[in-house]
Request: fold
Amino acid sequence: VQLVESGGGLVQPGGSLILSCATSGFTFSSYVMSWYRQAPGKQREWVSYITNTDGITNYADSVKGRFTISRDNAKNTVYLQMNSLKPEDTAVYYCFTRRGGMDYWGKGTLVTVSS
Reply:
């Protein structure tokens, strides 16, 4: 199982970024996919998830209304559209899935929100 995030970078407050997580090694369409983030000096926190068949989504209160998670089962990829970014969104963003009782994480992509 491989999860590879991309799309991070430096963005000004109020700006947007879209993160991607390309996956391989498992039947992507059968699993819930999630995004987590870890800010400097803080614990990793859950950001959002999307279910496999129905595409039901859920968001942490801190990002609700600003972030949108989506998935393309044909491309085995999950996305996180981030709008109206704030300095407190600065973090390493991780892609996550749980399969067969095991947790799988990507290596993360750094998002820095700063002027």
Remarks:
- The two ends are 37 Å apart (CA to CA).
- The mean pLDDT is 97.
- Residues 35 and 95 are 5 Å apart (CA to CA).
